[in-house]
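Appendix B, example 12.
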Amino acid sequence: MNVQDIVNTVSQKAGLDQATTEKVVGTIFSVLEHEAEGTSASSFFAKIPGADDLAHQYDVMAAPAGGGGFLSSLQGALGGVLGEKAGALVNGLAALKASGLDMAQIQKAGETLVQQAEAAAGPDLTNQVLGSVPSLKSHLGLG
């Protein structure tokens, strides 16, 4: 199973269009890429072809296009104070909310994404990677 299969399934089960789903999946993968520890994250991304590319495409630590204004300044300040790990989560959650989805939609997409990741990378590895980012799990309604 590759990342496009995951995007297609999440889109279908969460009732989201392809572009929005791709952004949600890419954003969550980017948060995991920045926050998950060590070799488990590398192994996880190696088992889902295209996941690391999608994470880079929606990199939560990249400078926002167009300057961003007050919210991006606040995100930058929080990220600076809290460190990259917390900054990635703050930026990721802001990006998900900015995509126009409500919490129920984000949670349904996150739940479906985790199910698909478990099918692709195995439940043990997926849980190990998610376990290293417990605050993401709680925001996705998985904690």
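The two ends are 25 Å apart (CA to CA). The chain is about 75% helix and 0% strand.
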